[in-house]
Amino acid sequence: MTGPATSEDTRRIREVLSRAHRAALDAVGGRASVARHLVALPGDAHPTHAAAVGKAAADMMAGALDVVGPGVSDALVITKHGHAHVLADAPSHVRVLESAHPVPDASCLAAGEALWRFVAGAPPQARFLVMISGGASALCEYLAPGLDATFLARVNDWLLSAGLAIGPMNRVRKRISRIKGGRLAGALDHREALCLMISDVPGDDPKVIGSGPLVRHEPEDIDVSGLDLPEWLATVAAKPPPLAPAAAFDRVLAEVVAHPALAKEAAARALREQGLAVHVHGRLLEGDAVESGPHLVRVAGAAPGRVHLWSSETTVRLPPRPGRGGRCQSLALSAALVLEQAGAGVVLAAGTDGTDGPGEDAGALVDAASAARGRAAGRDPVADLAAADAGSFLHASGDLLRTGPTGTNVMDLLMAWSPGPA
After folding, report:
1. Residues 362-385 pLDDT 10s
2. Which of 412, 413, 409 is closest to 197 using CA atoms?
3. Contacts by 395-398 with C-beta closer than 8 Å and gap 24+?
4. How far apart are CA 170 and CA 212, in angstroms?
5. What are 190-211's pLDDT values in tens digits?
6. pLDDT tens-place string over residues 225-251
C-alpha cells in the first residue's frame, strides 16, 4: 500500500494487524505445541506423572492429556488466576493451583512447595513430564530456609522498580530459591524426566525460561556480582542454596516446543496473505518501553509501505503507585504521540500471553488519531506515561486489546506500519 493513508486505510490495517496477531497466537498455542511433541514418543516412554507451571500451564497440560492422558496417574498444574478454564472438565487426579502474577504472594510459596512435594513424593518408578512456560518464575517459588512471603514481595518490588531485563531478574531469583536454577532436579532422585518449554526469553535459553528448574546450572549462571543489589538483598543472595550436581540431570531431557520466531513467522504469513509487504526484524527489541515506541515509528517511517515485525522484551520503571497497564501499553501510547506528529501509521504492541501488567488487557493497537481521541476524553498522555497509567489513556481512546488467556507466552509481539510515499 502506497500513497497518503486515508481513514479507510487505517481501519483496514488495524483489522489486518489484529488478525495477524491472532494467527501468531494460534501458531504457538501451548496445547497444540505439547501435543505435537508427545505424539512422536514411543509408548514405553510415556510419562506417569505430569506437572505444568506458567501462564500457559493449563493449555500445556491439556495437550499432554490429549496424547498421553490414560497413562498419567497424577498431575499438577500451577498457573495464574483465571488461566485454568481449559481444564474445567479434567480428571480428578489433575490438581490445579492458581497463583499470583506478576506480584507474588503466599500462594506462590504454597505452589512451590506443592511442586517440590509432587516430584519428591512420586514412586521410584515414576516417569515425569514437566512443562514450563513464561510466568513460572513468579507463580511458583520454594524459598531458601528462613525466607517468607514478605521477603518475596520485597524482592519482587525491587526487581520491578529496578527495570531489570528478564536475564538479570531471574539470576536474582535463582539466588534465593530451592527450585530455580536447576535445583528441582534434586527432587527427581535420578528418575526420568522430559521437560518441555515454551520460550518467552531472548535466545530461547532453557536456563532462563521459568528460571530453568530442570536445566543444569553452573555458578556463573546465577552470578549477580554485576548487579547493584540493595544491602538487605545482597546479604541473602550471598548464601544461595547449593546447585544440583551434574549427575542429577543424567536422565533429564529439556526441549523448547514453541518460541517467538514461530509467532513472528505466522504473523508474517497472515499479513502477506492480505497483500501486505512484511519486514521481520530478527533482532529482539529491548530497553525502555516508553523510548521504544517512537523508535518503532521511526523505523517504519524510514521503510514505509510494509509492516515491520518484532519480538520484544522491554521494561518499564514503575513509580511508587503505578496506574493501569504494562510495558506494551506504555510503548503503544508513546508510539501514538509520534504517529500523531507523522499524521499516519499504525502500531500494535501486545503480550502473547493475553496480559500486559497487572490488568486483563493484552496491549494496544494505536494509530495517528489515538492521542487526540484520548485527549478528547479528558486524558493527558504525557502525564499518564509518567504515572505508568498508559492503560487508562488507551481505555479512553478505545485502543486497548483484550484477548483473554491465550494458552501461550512467547514474549511480546510488535507490529508497525507507515504508508508509502504519495
Report:
1. 999 999 999 999 999 999 999 999
2. 409
3. 395/324, 397/336, 397/366, 397/370, 397/371, 397/373, 398/373
4. 9
5. 999 999 999 998 889 999 999 9
6. 999 999 999 999 999 999 999 999 999
Give dist(CA 384, CA 362) in Å, integer: 18
Residue 5: pLDDT above 80? Answer: no
Query: Cα–Cα distance between 118 and 187 in angstroms, integer?
Result: 9
Asked if 152 and 109 touch (Cβ cutoff 8 Å), the reply is: yes
Tell me the average pLDDT of the chain.
94
Q: How confident is the model at residue 178 (pLDDT cuts 50, 70, 90)?
A: very high
Asked whether the beta carbons of 394 and 332 are under 8 A apart, the reply is yes
- Residue 237 to residue 179: CA distance in whole angstroms: 15
Is the Cα torsion angle 22, 373, 277, 282 positive or negative in sign?
negative
- Kindly give, in sequence order, each residue whose CB lies less than 8 Å from that of residue 111, ignoring residues fewer than 6 positions away: 53, 78, 97, 99, 139, 140, 141
170 vs 188 pLDDT, higher one: 188
Helix (H) or strand (E) holding 78: strand 74-80
| CA-based nearest residue to 329, from 316, 340, 311 | 316
Instruction: Say how far apart CA 420 and CA 301 lie, in whole Å.
Output: 8
Q: What is the DSSP string of 289-347?
A: HHHHHHHHHHHHHHS-SEEEEEEEEEE----SS--S--HHHHHHHHHHHHHHHHT--EE
74, β-bridge pairs: 49
Residues 62-113: pLDDT tens digits? 999 999 999 999 999 999 999 999 999 999 999 999 999 888 899 999 999 9
Q: Are 248 and 188 in contact (CB under 8 A)?
A: yes
Q: Which residue has the higher pLDDT, 319 or 339?
A: 339
CB 143 within 8 Å of CB 152: yes
| Residue in this structure with the C-alpha cell 497444540, named with its chain if needed | 32
What is the C-alpha to C-alpha distance for residues 115 and 374, in angstroms, rounded to an integer? 45
Q: What is the pLDDT of residue 421?
A: 65
pTM above 0.85, yes or no: yes
CB atoms within 10 A of CB 400: 26
Non-local CB neighbours of 136 within 8 Å, separated by 6+ positions: 53, 54, 57, 78, 209, 210, 211, 213
**Longest CA–CA separation in the chain, Å:** 71
pLDDT > 90? residue 4:
no
What kind and span of H or E run contains 64? helix 57-68
